[in-house]
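Z., the sequence and structure:
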Amino acid sequence: MDFNLSEEQIMIRDAARDFAQTELLPGVIERDEKQQFPAEQIKKMGELGFLGMMVDPKYGGSGLDTVSYVLAMEEISKIDASASVVMSVNNSLVCWGLEHYGTEEQKQKYLVPLAKGEIIGAFCLSEPEAGSDATSQKTTAIDKGEYYLVNGTKNWITNGNNASVYLVIAQTHPEKMHKGINALIIEKGMEGFVVGPKENKLGIRGSDTHSLMFTDVKVPKKNRIGEDGFGFKFAMKTLAGGRIGIASQALGIASGAYELALKYSKERKAFGKEISKHQAIAFKLADMAVQIEAARHLCIKAAWEKDQKQNYDLSGAMAKLYAAEMAMQVTIEAVQIHGGYGFVKEYHVERLMRDAKITQIYEGTSEIQKIVISRSILQD
């Protein structure tokens, strides 16, 4: 058992940390307030290879392992979770799914520019009545011979307006239930495809979250991923890896808040000494450090299992559940340690607290993770 990072992994982590500090930190508060998508910063992330980290270099990716991806996600998320969710979706949900299940033609047309960061993608599963219950897809893809006719609405779609490529999960054979679902590649600009208004959110406000409407959208058969009826399985396999990305995001949000709280506690004085020397604060910091370290080990273990081509469904769900719950607790404590200043935007921790909440909800709520975990352990 080796807990040491390789030289390459350390280099990737440090590069992500440097990018976050120099490119993401300036203006992060203003972007949050204005709900401004970090377009310029995302473009630079693509140029540095952060949007196709695990994709084979022959398809324009960086060819890195999942552990490196976790390390980079943590560093980016410490500063700007709105940028890191773009990174997570593009890497874990869009690029990974296309590389593993797409045709060679799909890879050349879509995966290469996605991995290079020339464009970004979106993963479209959730609907007004189908969030946690992914089997209840109301969006339909009717087989018309040479194409599918797609109708329906998708909700809460990350990169909803800025994406160029959308992986859309839709029902083709309702009588087959989840075995009748397909995954289709839909391009922005296809006739009948409309992007709805941007959601006004509690956190990750720089990320563009939209509803999408499809009205008689003609999608060529060659844009289907996998065999007919593979869509639900595709979504579940893709989300299993996505959980590692969001767990890493939660880890980064928490560790960013902890670092700010630790620094502040050494500077702020109360009753004649730094507040870090008061046991009430010191114990809070101790608890935060332990929780973050535990979450980091869960994230890296899940990533390592994925790299070893082992089944990572359980470890990914555990990492997502624990890291998300931990991020909420740690960011609340970081605000508390800052006292009144924690309630003020310029100290960053209130934003991190707001950003942490979504990690308990998207890509499988904490309750869904408990279902995945309990089913796994009860099968043993």
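The longest helix spans residues 231-267. DSSP finds eleven helices and ten strands in the chain.

Let me know what you think.
H.
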